[in-house]
Design goal:
Length: 743
């Protein structure tokens, strides 16, 4: 639970002020096992509270971040990275029995509520956090040995969050993530909605027992592929003048019940800047060739979600049906009430989904409670024979179900889907499952709904397209010429591919039939999926001669699994300048080639990697079928010399210091001064020549040196002059000296 943003801090503080006795504090945890990183809350929020305004430009926590670890600096500007949503959540609404009508309807908008002015407070109003739990079902323990408690039929990372609502419905959401390359671009969420009667977050007291009528559940995402692209082109990432410039389109693929967005243009140029190509021509070519910063396209992501299961138990007629004398009268009443195009299923229930809406990023509560989750309004319309949506619905089975409102697919940031109405009695439970998915674009050429205003069916565009700069063509076929960046780590590439794998994971099946019908799927996921040999747990350390040593135990050599995709063949050692890659292969070690004590070792003696510089290491396992593990061991490392056993003579370098001779010798490191000859633990105190304490540095690493950036305890830059240092150890050793700064 690190890296909390100011926005989340503010939301948590408001929640603490508003929470009733018995409710717990707002918490969040981060899914970080796979390639897709996400922040989840025990309030219902996913990513963060709905944010489309000016404060949305930066984040310190993942917002459907894909690829992960994507923060970067380009031309002196720092970017938060490849984050793809403005928030997500779940809405609910119902009428207590005997209290019909809009004036008596009760709501619980748990996440994703707000406008360009900012998110609305939900804690203490619609959501009462109850708790969170994280389970790490990793194949290996932190020391690199096999985990005897590993469950091969479960996800590697499981987070359970629960919260109460003023409806008396308590929500438990269990989210699952994997590191396996075919399954690491998704997070699967299973929701259980139980009518407990707890309306204030205190389970010890039950405030409500009346039957809930016309209960509806809505699942909502706000998409924005991706923050990096918006910031790189506009130097901002916000709805009012960013996402709604006409940059993105929503698509609906009914084969998978999949909604996703793609960034198709950038309205600051006459050129069609699909996927927001890097705006600087030289950098575009560099990034495209090397894969740095994810390649030449700033926003190739297609983020989306697909429904895996929805509950059909407790589905009910709306109130006017219950007074009808027979089915034909009921249908007549419904068609009068709800419109001409309307059908019941074989159980005389309303066909699902109730609504399937794409709209703008404005989700203010006054708008959503009126339009989105009420039984007298099917906001998105209905597929119906003879209407403008026919003869091209996905199949005749869709007639009577909610239509996709393709006319708003252009510029739309918000997508939601609604199920119901249901009738709930105390103790009743509803279950829903969905997958949050993201890929490198979508299936090229597949005909789906949306994509362009006033066009219902269109082919999904391909990123293998022409790229121009001021009319100059630099490539006719981007992917043919440059390929995919290396965070595309398997044949699962597009969001369509990922959705397919999500259904396979949920069903525990080798194949699935299209189109899918979520109501026919099981209430809970199976998750018996094939897995490769896991990546080892690595230790990265400096040596006494300035090299870098990587070691790991042989746990992966002995890993077994009922659905193992192949036997371990080798380990591949990689290094990168950035946490997201691109990754350079340093060496390959065959399986079994240990040092003799079950320990693998690799020494990086590359002189190009200089002292004081930072790199990232990763080791992947590869089996005899060529399948690789995920990169679960990405390790940041600052190159140094190993610490001395006992404090002796200490050197300061450079000394004298001037602005062009900084420790490390690289751009961005020119303000560093190095203290050399340190033991693993010591305290460095820096004084002015007059004896004033300037800074205290606690050194607690097994490295020979540490860096100081010439700032005081008050974060002020120091001036030219002579400075003194005193270094002490816990054992009482002491050494002192002086150095000069010239500016």
């Amino acid at each position: 639970m690190k890296n909390i943003s100011l926005l989340i801090l503010a939301a948590g503080f408001l929640g603490l002020l508003l929470l009733p006795a018995g409710a717990q504090e707002l918490e969040f945890m981060i899914h970080s096992r796979g390639m897709l990183h996400e922040t989840v809350f025990n309030s219902g929020d996913i990513g963060r509270p709905w944010t489309t305004g000016d404060e949305g430009n930066k984040t310190t926590t993942p917002l459907m971040e894909w690829p992960s670890r994507s923060a970067t600096m380009v031309q002196g500007t720092r970017y938060s990275g490849q984050h793809n949503i403005i928030g997500a959540g779940v809405y609910m609404a119902a009428n207590p029995d005997g209290q019909p009508g809009m004036e008596s309807r009760r709501y619980a908008l748990c996440g994703a509520v707000g406008t360009g002015a900012g998110s609305e407070t939900i804690i203490g109003r619609w959501s009462y956090p109850l708790g969170m739990e994280r389970i790490e079902n990793f194949p290996l323990l932190p020391d690199g040995s096999l985990n005897p408690e590993y469950n091969p039929d479960e996800a590697e990372e499981i987070i359970t969050a629960s919260w109460a609502t003023p409806l008396g419905v308590t929500v438990t959401r269990t989210s699952r993530a994997w590191s396996y390359p075919d399954y690491d671009d998704m997070i699967i969420y299973e929701y259980e909605l139980e009518y407990t009667g707890d309306t204030d977050g205190n389970p010890a007291t039950i405030e409500q027992s009346a039957v809930l009528k016309d209960f509806m559940a809505l699942f909502i995402y706000g998409f924005a592929p991706s923050m990096y692209g918006y910031q790189r082109h506009y130097q901002e990432w916000k709805y009012e003048s960013g996402m709604y410039r006409g940059d993105q389109n929503n698509f609906w693929d009914p084969d998978y019940w999949l909604s996703f967005n793609m960034n198709l243009r950038t309205n600051i140029s006459d050129e069609a800047l699909f996927a927001k190509r890097e705006p600087n021509k030289e950098l575009f070519l560099e990034f495209a060739r090397t894969g740095k910063n994810g390649g030449g396209l700033c926003s190739p992501q297609a983020p989306g979600f697909c429904m895996l299961y929805y509950d059909t138990s407790h589905l009910a007629f709306v109130d006017t049906i219950e007074s009808a004398r027979n089915e034909s009268e009921a249908v007549a009443v419904l068609r009068t009430t709800l419109g001409k195009y309307y059908e019941l299923d074989e159980n005389n229930h309303i066909k699902q989904p109730w609504s399937n809406k794409v709209s703008t990023g404005n989700t203010r509560s006054s708008k959503m409670v009126v339009d989105a989750i009420n039984p007298d309004k099917r906001w998105s319309g209905v597929y119906s024979e003879g209407s403008t949506t026919w003869p091209n619905p996905p199949s005749a089975r869709w007639i009577g179900r909610a239509a996709y409102n393709y006319r708003q697919s252009s510029d739309a940031a918000q997508k939601h889907i609604v199920f119901g109405p249901y009738t709930l009695r105390p103790g009743d439970r509803l279950e829903f499952s969905l997958a949050e998915v993201v890929g490198y674009g979508a299936a090229p050429g597949k005909v789906v709904e949306g994509g362009q205003a006033l066009v219902q069916w269109s082919a999904t565009p391909s990123w293998n397209r022409r790229v121009t700069f001021a009319g100059e063509v630099v490539t006719e076929h981007y992917l043919d010429d440059f390929g995919y960046p290396d965070y595309i780590n398997s044949e699962v590439i597009t969001v369509t591919d990922v959705a397919h794998k999500a259904f396979q994971a949920y069903l525990g099946a080798d194949s699935i039939a299209l189109p899918v019908w979520p109501e026919e799927n099981p209430r809970d996921g199976d998750y018996r999926i094939p897995v490769p040999v896991p990546a080892p747990v690595i230790m990265v350390e400096n040596t006494s001669i300035g090299q870098v040593r990587l070691t790991w135990k042989d746990g992966p050599d002995r890993f077994t699994h009922p659905r193992l995709t192949g036997a371990l063949r080798e380990y591949r050692i990689y290094r990168s300048d950035a946490g997201m890659g691109p990754w350079a292969l340093l060496a390959t070690l065959p399986a079994g080639q240990t040092t003799g004590s079950g320990l693998y070792e690799y020494i990086d003696a590359d002189p190009v990697f200089k002292l004081g510089e930072r790199r990232y290491y990763s080791v992947v396992s590869v089996n005899d079928q060529g399948h690789s593990s995920g990169r679960t061991n990405i390790t940041r490392h600052d190159k140094n010399v190993a610490s001395v056993a006992k404090l002796g003579e200490v050197f300061v370098a450079p000394n004298p210091f001037n602005i062009e001779s900084g420790f490390g010798g690289k751009t961005g490191a020119e303000d560093k001064i190095g203290f050399y000859g340190l033991p693993e633990r010591c305290t460095i105190r820096i004084f002015s020549y007059a004896g004033q304490l300037i800074q205290t540095i606690e050194h607690n690493e097994p490295v020979y040196t540490t860096a100081w950036f010439q700032v005081t305890r008050n974060e002020q830059e120091i001036a030219s002059g002579i400075y003194l240092y005193v270094i002490t150890t816990p054992g009482g050793d002491r050494v002192s000296g002086k150095f000069i700064i010239v500016k």
